[in-house]
Write a structure and sequence with these properties.
This protein is an all-alpha fold. The chain has one domain. Helices cover 41% and strands 0% of the residues. The chain is built from three helices and no strands. Helix 1 crosses helix 2 and helix 2 packs across helix 3. The longest helix is centred in the N-terminal third of the chain and has 13 residues. The protein is globular and about 40 Å long.
């Protein structure tokens, strides 16, 4: 995900608890409402870190021949 898009979404959900809860349950719906559409084959899992639990995400490595981009 591009940093600017990530920052925009994070800014919006950090200011609106209801939006954040909806985003955790229906991220594709909320992204669409915010103007970010994804290809139908893309899945998103939203998790929220806590004071004692963090997540380490290993990004997908695309081949140069793989033309698919998310955004």
């Amino acid at each position: 995900m591009h940093d600017k898009i990530y920052e925009d979404i994070l800014s919006k959900i950090s200011q609106d608890e209801e939006l954040k809860e909806r985003f955790k349950k229906e991220p594709l719906v909320v992204l669409d409402e915010l103007g970010y559409s994804l290809p139908p084959n893309i899945q998103i899992e939203v998790v929220e870190e806590t004071a004692d639990k963090v997540y380490f995400v290993i990004p997908y490595h695309r081949d140069e021949e793989d033309p698919v981009t998310v955004w």
